[in-house]
Amino acid sequence: MAEGLARELGRISLAEGLARELGRISLAEALELTILIATKEPKRLQRVAVRWLERYLQEREPSLSDATLADSALAALPHEPRTEAVRVLRRLIGSF
């Protein structure tokens, strides 16, 4: 069990390390990292989700309703099933 947890946390570390190495990752890539953190390290989600939302607002300049939808979907990420929240977030940025 500990080995499996270490492997999953390693994926997050690998993904975050790659993001740092690349410098600036796309909004879609940042969203996927946010989803991964919601799944594997939910205690970190609040800070990561707020940063993603700030970036979404700056880069996309969404309508108030889309901004509210993004906020609600991010808030739903820690809860199973998160499929709908993920679908909404990906649709808002036009990925997947």
Structural class: mainly alpha
Q: What Rg, in angstroms, do the CA atoms define?
A: 14 Å
Succession of helices and strands: HHHHH
Total count of domains: 1
Main sheet specs: none
Strand coverage percent: under 5%
Figure out the total of helices.
Answer: 5
Number of strands: 0
* Structural shape: globular
Kindly report the average pLDDT value.
84
Helix residue percentage: over 70%
Q: Would you identify the regions where 5 or more consecutive residues have pLDDT less than 50? A: 1-9
Amino- and carboxy-terminal Cα gap: 32 Å
Brief characterization of the structure:
The chain has helices at 2-22, 27-40, 45-60, 64-76, 83-93. It is an all-alpha fold and 96 residues long. It is globular, with a radius of gyration of 14 Å.
